[in-house]
Design goal:
The protein has ten helices and 15 strands. By secondary structure, the chain is α/β, with parallel strands linked by helices. The strands form three sheets. It has a seven-stranded parallel β-sheet, with helices on both faces. β13 and β14 form a beta hairpin. The protein starts with 9 loop residues before the first strand and ends in a 19-residue tail after the last strand. The model has no long low-confidence stretch (mean pLDDT 95). Keywords: NADP, Oxidoreductase.
């Protein structure tokens, strides 16, 4: 399938004004095939403020933020770019997104990540319910981003197109999270800065397979293999060797400072697809663990077979670090997919359902 080119700009509402939402506002404003018509905020103090101000653009866009869901749906947008926090309200957010498509509005969203590829993770009847809502509203829902998302679904699958034989696919995020601003994720979900005996929900059996298992299963489906169940999980949490301050949480010496985890899909007991995260709050910690070839963070794809292949993907913000650009690439993967999602069949979509998504129209100075 070729990329989708809309006949006229698509009307878009950005849903949230936080770490992803503010970049989404800027991204929609810069995209020639999209028109920003509304912005939702959960903060009463932001109601009525101009989107350009909330995104830090230094200029007004003539679009005011609103806390009123129905007011924004009444604008009849073609699509919602949803970047609101979902990690701490997974099933509530699924209800929100299902309601949008039932009301006839297409959605691209950064979460909940379980919807990247829910087959095998969510009950079949729940997936069928989302699809039915899409059919009722003739609208589609696509959840993606960078991780879970492009770095461990489309990118590795494209690389496998060069393979003669595939023995094992491993996708990794290796990153210093000290400048990642998301206190709920850092402290409550990961447990950074907490005593090691504290057991946040993320480390309970089965949770990693719920959060990152979907990308393991998506890679397997893209390669045409059926994985053993359940997926395998490995976690190694390490204490901070020294006290450090991060933008989200202070990490005292001896509290949890780093973690390496894996979700592994096997076929007949043999590992075939592995998702690995190596996450530090101190760049100097755990020198024996994998490190990026350059910078403070990377995504790495390693394919064992014939031939052996390794690809390292890095990004860095023009005016910030890799955690800033991480929010930008998450938002832009969604924004650039809007035309394809609007044109797609109704219901829940995975990356395997979409045509080529590019940065069409974004070349500097090239016009439309």
């Amino acid at each position: 399938m070729s990329q989708v080119i809309p006949e006229k700009p698509l009307r878009v509402v950005v849903w949230s004004t936080g770490t992803i939402g503010r970049h989404a506002i800027a991204g929609v404003d810069a995209h020639p095939d999209l028109e920003l018509v509304g912005v939702w905020t959960s903060t009463p103090e932001k109601h009525g403020k101009d989107a350009g101000e909330l995104a830090g653009l230094g200029r007004e866009l003539g679009v005011k933020a609103s806390t009123d869901r129905d007011e924004l749906i009444a604008l009849a947008p073609d699509c919602i770019v949803h970047g609101a926090m979902t990690d701490d309200r997974v099933f509530e957010s699924i209800e929100d997104l299902t309601g949008f498509i039932r009301d006839g509005v297409n959605v691209v969203s950064s979460g909940p990540v379980i919807l990247v590829h829910p087959k095998g993770t969510l009950p079949d009847e729940m997936i069928a319910g989302i699809d039915e809502a899409g059919r009722q509203g003739n609208a589609s829902l696509h959840v993606n981003g960078i991780d879970p998302g492009f770095a461990n679904d489309v990118l590795p699958l494209v690389l496998t197109s060069l393979s003669q034989r595939i023995d094992h696919v491993k996708v990794s995020e290796i990153a210093d999270y000290s400048t990642y601003y998301q206190p709920v994720v850092m402290k409550d979900l990961f447990g950074f800065g907490q005593p090691l005996e504290t057991k946040p929900m993320l480390w309970e059996p089965g949770i990693l397979s719920t959060a990152w298992g979907p990308v393991v299963r998506l890679i397997a489906e893209g390669l045409g293999v059926t994985l053993d169940e359940p997926l395998q999980e490995y976690v190694d949490r390490r204490p901070a060797p020294r006290s450090v301050e991060t933008v989200s949480v202070d990490v005292a010496e001896g509290t949890m400072g780093s973690v390496m985890f894996r979700v592994v899909g096997t076929v007949d007991g043999v590992p075939r697809v592995t998702l690995e995260h190596v996450t530090r709050t101190d760049a100097q910690a755990e020198p024996d663990w994998p490190r990026p070839l350059e910078g403070d963070g990377c995504y790495r794809v390693e394919i064992s077979g014939e031939p052996e292949m390794k690809l390292e993907f890095t990004h860095h913000g023009e005016h910030g670090d890799h955690n800033v650009s991480g929010m930008i690439v998450t938002a832009q993967r969604l924004i650039n997919a809007v035309p394809a999602v609007v044109a797609a069949r109704p219901g829940l979509l995975t990356p395997l359902d979409l045509p080529l998504v590019t940065g069409r129209g974004l070349v500097s100075g090239a016009g439309r």
